[in-house]
């Protein structure tokens, strides 16, 4: 069911999706780190990470703020929050905590020095409305930084019919579920519509040809998490997808032709609260 401000998370909250999120973080973590560095995350800050999932962005932010700072990650999924807490404990971090909360309803613990999120605005029905509300928890002069995606930009060179098909499955399923597949570019207007100063923005991605690259498993795992939605929206059948062999077939389509796979472009946007 859709709720005010936030759509149902179409990728689910089970173990397959948690695995995908952690794989995703290993794959794009350096890109997010570069955005946070440019945005000005620093030692001693109090940071709010919204839509924290399995906790990867919160753990990254915790490294920026150090022992003198703190990070609060919030997510609507109790299972994701439980996993994030376990991971923080295993890492020996005492400057990060996690709470179950809905973005559109959250209003506690401020003022924060920074508001951050990765791949979260695309799931919001009214991202500017929710961003305006969340920005109210940030002190004047505080950092607001998000990392989103241009989903349609993933490709393989030389072109591969399988890569094209897998990309179509993902984009079509998200589109039919009402998810914004071009939130990377839309962030400029979202920030402005939220009453924030125009953000600075950068973009980047990964280009991979090594057979050990995580891009193949990441793409296949994204399809796996989306498979119920892919079937529900009649984008493809389970037989069409062949999920159990998809990662190997995606890898072969690149490696056997000495090609490269381009990840989707990730876009970072940040500003300071007036």
What this model shows, in words?
The chain is of the alpha/beta class and 274 residues long. It has one domain: 3-Layer(aba) Sandwich (Rossmann fold). The protein contains nine helices and ten strands. It has helices at residues 15-39, 56-65, 78-90, 127-135, 161-176, 183-193, 215-232, 238-241, 243-255; strands at residues 46-50, 70-75, 96-100, 112-118, 138-150, 155-157, 200-204, 207-208, 260-262, 265-272. A seven-stranded mixed beta sheet has the order 3-2-1-4-5-10-7. Helix 1 packs parallel to helix 2, helix 1 (15-39) packs across helix 7 (215-232) and helix 7 crosses helix 9. It is globular, with a radius of gyration of 18 Å. The two termini are 35 Å apart. Residues 1-5 have low confidence and may be disordered.
**How many structural domains?**
1
Mean pLDDT: 93
Strand order of the largest sheet: 3-2-1-4-5-10-7
What is the number of beta strands?
A: 10
Annotated CATH architecture? 3-Layer(aba) Sandwich
As a whole number of angstroms, the C-alpha radius of gyration is 18 Å
Helix content: 40-55%
Task: Give the name of the CATH superfamily.
Answer: Vaccinia Virus protein VP39
Low-confidence stretches: 1-5
Structural class: alpha/beta
Give the N-terminus to C-terminus distance in angstroms.
Answer: 35 Å
Major sheet characteristics: 7 strands, mixed
**Order of SSEs, N→C?**
HEHEHEEHEEHHEEHHHEE
* Proportion of beta-strand residues: 15-25%
CATH C-level category: Alpha Beta
CATH topology descriptor = Rossmann fold
Shape annotation: globular
Number of helical regions: 9
């Amino acid at each position: 069911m859709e709720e005010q401000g936030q759509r149902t998370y179409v990728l689910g909250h089970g173990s397959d999706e948690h695995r995908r999120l952690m794989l995703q973080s290993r794959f794009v973590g350096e890109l997010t780190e570069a955005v946070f560095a440019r945005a000005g995350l620093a030692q001693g800050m109090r940071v709010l990470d919204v839509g924290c999932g399995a906790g990867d962005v919160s753990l990254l932010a915790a490294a920026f703020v150090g022992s003198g700072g703190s990070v609060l990650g919030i997510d609507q999924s109790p299972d994701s929050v439980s996993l994030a807490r376990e991971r923080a404990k295993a890492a020996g971090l005492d400057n990060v905590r996690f709470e179950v909360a809905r973005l559109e309803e959250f209003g506690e613990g401020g003022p924060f020095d920074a508001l951050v999120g990765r791949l979260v605005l695309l799931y919001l029905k009214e991202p500017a409305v929710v961003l305006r509300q969340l920005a109210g928890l940030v002190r004047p002069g505080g950092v607001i930084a998000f990392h989103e995606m241009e989903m349609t930009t993933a490709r393989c060179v030389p072109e591969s019919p399988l890569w094209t098909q897998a990309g179509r499955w993902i984009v079509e399923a998200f589109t039919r579920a009402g998810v914004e597949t071009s939130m990377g570019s839309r962030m400029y207007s979202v920030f402005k519509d939220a009453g924030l100063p125009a953000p600075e923005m950068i973009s980047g991605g990964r280009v991979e040809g090594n057979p050990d690259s995580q891009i193949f498993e990441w793409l296949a795992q994204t399809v796996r998490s989306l498979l119920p939605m892919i079937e529900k929206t009649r984008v493809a059948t389970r037989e069409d997808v062949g999920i159990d062999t998809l990662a190997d077939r995606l890898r072969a389509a690149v490696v056997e032709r000495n090609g490269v796979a381009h990840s989707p472009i990730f876009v970072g946007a940040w500003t300071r609260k007036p």
